[in-house]
Design brief:
Layout lengths: L9 E8 L12 E5 L2 H7 L4 E10 L7 E11 L10 E6 L12 E7 L4 E6 L4 H10 L10 E4 L10 H9 L9 H8 L9 H10 L10 H30 L9 H33 L5 E2 L11 E3 L2 H5 L9 E6 L19 E5 L6 H9 L2 E4 L10 H4 L5 H10 L6
Parallel strand pairs: 3-7, 11-12, 12-13
Antiparallel strand pairs: 1-6, 1-8, 2-5, 3-4, 4-5, 6-7, 9-10, 10-11
Helix pairs in contact: 4-6, 5-6, 5-7, 6-7
């Protein structure tokens, strides 16, 4: 079943590092780029004024900041018989005020004719993710690089691609909408527990085997559960909005904000629990002994402890046969939380679904003796030198089995 392509949403993109002069506030509050050949490849030769544009700042730990604006692309010497002088203008806004020298500037033209301007800190995780998504060079220079989104540079909107698009506020349409709606029909307008949702996701994919391919199974199950959740969420949110938030003269602003926040919080908490549910199923399929969410010391509760709490608390049990696994669907800087969760275990493991984590982060993880575990499908989003250090789910299971952390 075709899940869509990146070219369904974007025509082309340019990227560059910002120079000092490009981040200096203009006296007229208007920013300008010279119309390079790369920009002409993106916008063409015709003047285009007041192009609707969405400006997005994606920092390290902050949530995305979004501002609506516009761009103007035109030839200042349009009437000259032989000369051209293309320029790209946009007005100062909350996002442009955050830009610093060295930040990475992405400018994409969307299929509907609008544009998207994305600013990321230099060498950040989100920068790596966007470079991978659009098939761009690893290290943007201070000159624009252009990429047309088609052919060999197009990307199928699989789990990893949609993960990154979600950061941009883009939610691709589901081609299996009818199938998904049939599966969630029994829930009406009420969310079931995450465990029930996880079981439904797995049962709806009977061809997927955790025993044969745990990496593929984990991604498939998480992907399906995300689809199911978003379809049900859409129904519930639509129903709540249709009921309104007060009258025109007495709008319930607090009620609306509270409801919006609850939607976001539910998404975050559910994603983490779903990942743990599917990992638990994989451990059972491979006969791995584990304890989920039990205390170690100082009220710490690692997501998974191997082989269990009894062995961990037994001073006579060899420390080299103890393992822990943190489980976080997204990381940002939260990976440090797992470092203190099991004092007896020197070398810790952390599983995530986040693509393209920055080298600075993974280098620090290695220094802190924290091994990153990712489903095999996500490994290509990392740089080659990082990939040599990563392990996948199958490899992690092999480590546990080699240390006899199983039920035999």
């Amino acid at each position: 079943m075709r899940r869509g392509q990146l070219s369904d949403y974007f025509e082309g993109i340019v990227v560059k590092r910002l120079s000092a002069v490009e981040t200096t506030p203009a006296q007229s509050h208007q920013h300008e780029f010279n119309g390079t050949i790369e920009l002409r490849r993106l916008f063409g030769d015709d003047d285009r004024k007041n192009i609707p544009a969405r400006f997005i700042w994606l920092g390290q730990e902050q949530e995305a900041i979004t501002v609506e604006g516009s761009l103007t692309w035109y030839d200042a010497r349009r009437r000259h018989p032989t000369r051209t002088e293309y320029r790209l203008y946009y007005y100062e806004n909350e996002i442009t005020e955050l830009m610093k020298q060295g930040d990475v500037f992405f400018l994409a033209v969307c299929r509907d004719g609008s544009a998207m301007v994305i600013i990321t800190p230099a060498d950040s995780t989100i920068q790596n993710q966007l470079l991978w998504l659009f098939g761009l060079e690893d290290q943007p220079e201070f000159q624009f690089t252009f990429q047309q989104i088609e052919g060999s540079h197009d990307t199928e909107l699989d789990f990893t691609a949609r993960y990154i698009l979600d950061e941009l506020g883009i939610e691709p349409a589901e081609p299996e909408a009818n199938t998904l709606d049939t599966l969630i029909e029994k829930f009406g307008l009420v969310f079931p527990t995450t465990r029930i949702f996880s079981e439904l996701a797995r049962s709806s994919l009977p061809e997927v085997s955790a025993k044969d391919d745990p990496d593929a199974a984990l991604v498939a199950w998480i992907d399906r559960e995300e689809q199911l959740f978003r379809r049900l969420e859409r129904r519930i949110v639509a129903e709540r909005i249709s009921n309104g938030f007060g009258s025109v003269d007495n709008a319930d602003v607090d009620g609306f904000l509270s409801f919006s926040l609850s939607v976001q919080n539910r998404r975050k908490s559910r994603a983490g629990s779903a990942l743990e549910n599917h990992l638990e199923t994989i451990f059972i399929a491979h006969g791995i002994r584990y304890a989920r969410g039990v205390e170690t010391e100082n009220r710490n509760k690692p997501d998974f402890l191997f082989p269990g709490q009894i062995e961990y608390r037994d001073p006579a049990y060899p420390a080299e046969r103890l393992f822990m696994l943190g489980s976080k669907s997204t990381l940002k800087d939260r990976w440090r939380q797992v470092l203190s969760e099991a004092a007896r275990i020197e070398n810790k493991h952390l599983l995530t679904l986040e693509p393209g984590i920055s080298e600075n982060q993974t280098d620090e993880m290695q220094t802190k003796k924290l091994q990153l575990v990712l489903p095999r499908k996500i490994h290509p989003t990392y740089k080659p030198e990082q990939q040599s250090w990563l392990i996948d789910v199958h490899m992690f299971l092999a480590i546990l089995e080699n240390r006899h952390v199983n039920s035999d």
